[in-house]
Design a protein that fits this description.
The chain is an alpha/beta fold and 369 residues long. The protein is built from twelve helices and 16 strands. It has three domains: 83 residues, no CATH class; 238 residues, Aldolase class I (TIM Barrel, Alpha-Beta Barrel), CATH 3.20.20.70; 28 residues, no CATH class. The relative contact order is 0.10. α7 packs parallel to α9 and α11 packs across α12. The chain is globular, with a radius of gyration of 21 Å. The strands form three sheets. Strands 4-5-6-7-8-9-10-11-12-13 form a ten-stranded mixed sheet. Strands 2-1-3 form a three-stranded mixed sheet. A three-stranded antiparallel sheet has the order 14-15-16, with no helix packed on it. It starts with 7 loop residues before the first strand and ends with a strand. It binds iron/sulfur cluster. The site of iron/sulfur cluster (SF4) has 11 residues, from loops.
């Protein structure tokens, strides 16, 4: 197996020295193979074979920064589970395009599922290819250049119903600050566009990519919302804190989104710590996503009953400000459905019996109009 190679990258945007592991300094992506990964992580033969086989189907990419967050000896390390391919990805089930995005796309890069907002794919690569990505059909597989977006800009300019655009991908921060500035200017140039959101995992997996130029670019174009994809308290690093501080100083507004992942964060204590720590930093936890029905991710799936129990525990443990919406993104592009503990236990006449966060039953007279 050591003779077999798999394509992948360690993406190292920083010239800063990296910690343990001895990953080389570089401004360029370095192509690595299984032997290289084996130098940094203790892997058994089955795990090595899993990396090779899974990454032949779903591209593998890892930033040096994120690699250095992995506990090299712990096969259950939550960072490792999110970043390192495994044989479980070859299990059956799931769909390559669970939201039917290829059919719902108005242009190859613009998807509109709701009347007033749409998603613009502003890049088709990321610093790390998460092993549960819901756009794995295209991320890391499809060439991308910012000039490909012209058709989407023209479409958005014409569709005056659209008020909000979510810049997603791939990761929008894989663009240079100049390219990102251009994209934002083109969108804000349409007078019916009232709001822009930038959805990114870069502050977590490759924070060095957020340069002073990036912040200046964004600051000049405020107001902007940044949606940070973060899944585990271990992902809150000093470097992440530095990005958040600079975003805040730049006047950017931040919310977070988290995917509920078995073996990573399916525990109320882990999520309570994550969500509280985010609030302390001025980031409102926005969504907790039930994992999407994507091909090769079933090993991350948490039962909805368990998700509901976790939400119930969270309500008892942390402030309402730190509670995200727990949602399922329904298959076929039908949109998000809230999932929450059913606090309403029954009704007698006009009186509702409901469970409070303490677990005790109370009543509410439902006589409103
Ligand atoms: S950062 Fe987002 S788009 Fe990129 S691989 Fe991870 S989940 Fe997919």
């Amino acid at each position: 197996m050591h003779g077999r190679k798999t394509e992948g990258h360690i993406f190292c945007p920083s010239s800063k020295a990296l910690s343990k592991g001895g990953v080389k300094k570089s401004n360029l992506p370095l192509t690595i193979d299984v032997e290289t990964i084996s130098r940094y992580l203790n892997l058994n033969q089955d795990e090595i074979e899993g990396i090779v086989d899974a990454s032949n189907i779903f591209p593998f990419k890892l930033s040096a920064f994120y690699l250095n967050l992995i506990d090299r000896d712990d096969p259950y390390c939550p960072i490792r589970r999110q970043a390192i391919p495994s044989i479980e990805e070859l299990s059956e089930g799931g769909d390559m395009d669970p939201f039917n995005e290829s059919q719902m796309s108005h242009t190859p890069f613009f998807i509109k599922r709701y009347p007033k907002r749409g998603v613009l794919l502003t890049s088709l690569t990321c610093a790390v290819h998460c092993r549960f990505c819901n756009r794995r059909r295209v991320v890391g597989k499809t060439p991308f250049n910012v000039t490909f977006l012209e058709e989407s800009f023209r479409h958005i300019e014409k569709d005056r119903e659209i008020e909000e655009v979510i810049l997603s991908g791939g990761d929008p921060f894989m663009l240079s600050p100049e390219e990102l500035g251009y994209v934002i200017d083109r969108l804000k140039g349409a007078d019916h566009i009232k709001n822009l959101r930038i959805s990114s995992r870069i502050p977590v997996v490759s924070p060095d990519r957020i340069t002073p130029d990036t912040v200046t670019t964004l600051k000049k174009r405020s107001p902007l919302w940044i949606v940070i994809h973060i899944n585990h308290p271990k992902e809150i690093t000093p470097e992440f804190d530095d990005v958040v501080r600079r975003f805040r100083e730049g006047g950017l507004m931040m919310v977070s989104q988290t995917v509920l992942l078995r073996g990573v964060n399916d525990c109320p204590h882990i999520l309570a710590r994550l969500f509280e720590q985010l609030v302390y930093r001025g980031i409102k936890p926005y969504y907790l996503f039930q994992i999407d029905e994507v091909q090769g991710v079933s090993h991350f799936k948490v039962k909805i009953k368990r998700g509901i129990e976790i939400m119930r525990s969270l309500r008892q443990m942390i402030s309402g400000l730190a509670i995200p919406h727990y949602v399922i993104d329904l298959k076929g592009g039908l949109g998000k459905a809230p999932v929450d503990y059913r606090y309403i236990k029954g009704r007698k006449g006009g009186i509702i019996h409901a469970e409070g966060v303490t677990g005790k039953l109370g009543t509410y007279i439902d006589d409103g109009i």
